[in-house]
Amino acid sequence: MKNIHSLFLALATAVFFFLTSCSSPTAQEESSFNLPPGHYPGDPAENFAPVLHPGGKSTRNLALLRASWHSSSYDYNLTAQLITDGVVDTAMPWTLTAATSAEAPLNKRVREMLTDDNPVTTVHIPGSHAWVQIGLQGRKTLPAINGIVLKIPLRGVYNGKKGPWQYLAAGSDDGKTWTVLGQKKGYGSLADTTLFPLGDIFRPVIRFKKAETYRYYKVILQSPLLEAWNIGEFILLHDGRPLEIKPSYHFTSAWMSEDNKPQWLLTDLGVSSRIDSIVLHWIRPALAGRIEVSEDRKSWQEITTLPAVTSRIMRIIPGTPARGRYVRLSLKDPADGKHFVLSEMKVFGKGGMVPKPV
After folding, report:
1. Model confidence, pTM
2. Helix (H) or strand (E) holding 5
3. 117-172, pLDDT tens digit by residue?
4. How far apart are CA 196 and CA 1, in angstroms?
5. Residue 194 needs a FRET pair 20 to 30 A away by CA distance; which of 142, 237, 252, 299 works?
6. What totals of helices (H) and strands (E) does the chain contain, helices first?
7. Whole-angstrom distance, CA of residue 218 vs CA of residue 228
């Protein structure tokens, strides 16, 4: 055994000196192998991809597939990039709300931990008596739910003792008046290591007597064995199986603001271009706002205001054709008082960027 250890140490030492004696690549060598984003990684002579050039003499949608930015978004799916993807939707997007006894509502970063299929990312709720709820928003038709499953990792908050525990599930149409859907209580250990190999887990399962179509679902937890609850997953059951409720699973091509505060959207046309008209495809429109253009993204010129109407499609024509590289929407007063929701912004004019073969 001693000889094996000596041989291993000698081999490791030889490898170390070999690696440290190798010369580092020069800056020229690094640049030839590690090209920045947007550059063809192989021989430039073998790159036949089209290249974007300023131009375009015909009137077209200059904003199509161009980069866009936003002041805020409701989640990580309903972002500004979707207002220039060429897809027009008319239905409200599927979204989630979430709250706990410690924080209501949860922000988007924490909210998505409840449905990310990863019990390791948890929502922390202090106290031996706590509750967590989820709301299904956006769609008029709600799925039939016949049960709820929670996954609650116990590492760091549970000492393995036995004691009483209980949990209760409730449903609500408005988030205020609740109906009890099922409950369970018992005495013993909270841990179930067979279901979660990375550590102990408490897995409350509540099955309803019949399928329900509430908009909000809440689970109330209580046990003196815990001083805090870490909610890893909140799972709704449809026909006894987990229902996919992540917003990313229900795609809608639209941007949605985080709240009802003033917002802005910005699109880069690539080069200075002539702007003849702008078409906005709304799902939840703004009742007030303005359209601005800029050449440098610093100095802005207002070219027109938004009409104070709730039309789903707004065609806006400036008094005179405008010119600029960047187009910005500044929005106020959402029609529903909650969020702005814009599916597509089309900027018609001449110029922009056009692909040309090499």
Report:
1. 0.85
2. helix 2-21
3. 998 899 999 999 999 999 999 988 999 999 999 999 988 888 888 999 999 999 99
4. 38
5. 237
6. 3, 23
7. 17
